[in-house]
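User: quick one
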Amino acid sequence: MPEKSIYIDVQQFDPVLPDHVDWPLYQMSLNREQFISEVAEATLLELKKSKRNNSRIRDIIAKTYYLEKIRMKSDPYKIDPEDEKPFWKKVKSKLTEVSIGNIDNEDEEIHQVLKSIVKRYSNEIAGNFKISTFRFAQRMTPLILRRVLNSASAKYLKKFYANKYHLSDVLHFTGPINKIRSLVDKGTLVFVPTHFSNMDSILVGWAIESIGIPPLIYGAGLNLFNSRIMGYYMGRLGAYTLDRRKKNPIYLETLKTYSRLSVEKGCHYLFYPGGTRARSGALETRFKLGLLGTITDAQYENCLKNEEAYKKIFIVPVVINYHFVLEAKQLIEQHLKKTGEEKYLKNDEADIKGVNNVMSLVWKFFSTSSEMAISFGKPMDIFGNDVDEEGNSTDKHGQQVKIHDYFKLNGKIVEDQQRNQIFTGLLADHILKEYRKSTIVFSSQLLAFAAFQIIKSNNKRLDIYELLRLPEDDRTISYDLMTNALYKLIQHLKAMNESGQILLDPQIHKSIDQLIEHGLKNLGVYHNVKPLILTEENEFVSNNMNLLYFYHNRLSGFGLETVI
Amino acid sequence: MKPSSKHPTVAVLGAGSFGTAVANLISDNCRVYLYTRSPEKKEQISSTGFNYGQKLNERVIVSNDLEMITEQCKLLFPVIPSANFRDFIKRLCPLLKPDHILIHGTKGFDISKAKVDTDDNDLLLSRKDVATMSEVIQEETNVLQIGALAGPNLSSEIAQGQPTAAVIASPFKSVIREGTKVLKSRRFMILSSHDMTGIETAGVLKNIMAIGAGILHGMGMGNNTRAMLISRGLTEMIRIGDVMGSDTNSFLGVAGIGDLIATCSSNLSRNFTVGYWLAKGKELPDILNDMNEVAEGIKTVMISKALANQYKIHIPITDKIFQILFKELPAAKAINQLMDYRDLIDADFMEQ
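Assistant: Done. Structure below.
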């Protein structure tokens, strides 16, 4: 069978905008202070709009103070600023003064307290893009990654200075890259990737840079800033901080406003609509709509500002396809604990140590020389319509659509938060659909899927938690049974591929024996205890059902369960 | 909508009996277009001032110019039989913009993407084969602001000016608001719901029970039997609704049990008439030949049966009506078989 490659050589892509003066992020960084003030002002406006009167504002300040007090005590970070305790103490004393009526101008006082909190949060969130740091990283990253790849894999090859691998050997790209590039100067690009590993940000960031897209802003968890070097670089490369410990209403509103205003100003943007890493290993099936909602709101504001020549936002779904995820053990453990509660009994294995340090993740990842692929989805407007290379939206019948019409009622653009929320939900559905279409089936995932489904169908009466505790004999699959299942799956996947429902790695087109060999080599290559092995008796045995389940999940939800 | 507008800004698309009733209701608040495709029908309605026995209010303007209507009106009420709904929406699509609001009043499912044959003993349909009318609009057009209108709305009683109520369901508050503005009056109460699928599904499924009620009436059965049909039928509707993704509460409101009682109590409805004549021993093709308009319930029985087969849901009444319609099961035998059931739990949907 001929091998069909879906991958594109990215070395052909030059930067779309070579001069940094043309980059929206650079322009915004020139007026950083002003932007922070704008964020603070707009946040205050939003909070006042939604909460109406001052007693409600006082309530949300009190709630914020309460939640911050708990956070500072129960979950402190190394990088938390030293002045935060005195700051909140001051907030508390102001609140007390107001509540006992000791203040003449109560409304003004409450406003000032709110303003100080919002300003503090705006400053904390704001990134600090530096062109010099960016240029440095731009030059060095490919070199470093390549060196890491060759040095790390050389451990196996016993040739430390070998230069056998080029990045393009292990990192593949596919998707309508030329169209995405053409949209750079037609509007604002918002990349929304799937999220499986802490390594995603580095790889996606680098991938987007490799296809010539100017730097973008992205939210990075504050925990990543705990490493001083990472923190230093990330802030200067466009990252803004996202503190997941802070769930208080004022912080969340400030964060949303920062996100919305950055997009309104035309900064290309990257964020994970799923929020955190997919614990189960499966493709996301729902999103948190908070940040995604800021994109809808930004498009609305742009249309409102200039009805005829509004800035357009283009959504680009990105699917990251790995053979293995370094944190898989931890992730699936967390998932099973959460979903199974008392039904899930942890294995007796030693406690699982987390791999959270991003650099160590990169090193470990490359040490396996395992391939990965970044699949860019079809760019769309925020209503899920296709866009052409000029950025024009077309509906499913190929008719051009003026997207400001979506915000109109009786001929006029009108504000309607509830309508925008529903639009956001619909956008989420469009992105999720595109994720499925842009998923690349890897040999290892297919093998894991087939193995787990066979074991499951041999033990129909067991629930998932009982399945994970099966004795070895029941975790064994004959070679014939496996090839039979794989054959059916491959036929089905090829039909899905032809109708544009999924993508296939070239390995899937090879013979089943070759596919098995490739899949076994790559499935959970990093893990000490393999999810699946082939014994000398030519039988497959799973030595780690949790991991097998994790990698199997990557292909769940595609309707493949009924194929075997 | 401004009542003082020179030309209407609202239109009802489809001049069947319910479309005409809706146009008359809207005319209580503002001028409205009533669209009919056929120039002859337009001429006939305009010259007589009557349609389906209903007198048209003078603020209802009959037109067959779809382009002009969609240009002038942003609020549209398609009320087209479900069998033609998709074709009509496809024809409408090039004229629509994303700022149009579509609130449909069609009670039926669309299965144009699937193939079904009632002779097939293993009749199967999955959820994705069955589209509600709002889903048809979503699939075919670029309009997102969609709503559904449903309730106990027998056209003839509306025409007499008797008070009744309906639900406008939509995920969008704006759609409910705009629809309510033009429809609400002292004789027409409007309630709201965000469960569009539930409201649509309830409105469609009740037609099955209307056929059943017609059968019972034709057999000379009284109110006890009808009440049994309504209450047990509701349970089956909720089960099918569940497969469609509906909220049970929608079946307990005006567009659910309200519409179900109205349709099963009235010998005016088309589905009721089909059941009545079946019980009287008339053949289905002959009954259909004698009717002016479509009885949606017949197709709904078949779709529900196929969904039940696929998802293994227990719907004995629908199953018997299916057999009476398509498998020549005598109605009396069907009732005997139904009465043989044991160990039934009352209102089990409340325990879900």
